[in-house]
Amino acid sequence: MATVTVPHNPELTKEQVKEAISRHFSGTFDVSMPWHSRWIQVKKSGWSAVGVQLKQSKTATTFKLWTYMPSIKFGQLTGTLLPYIIFRSRWKELEEDVATFIEGAPEFR
Question: Is residue 13 over pLDDT 60?
Answer without folding.
Answer: yes
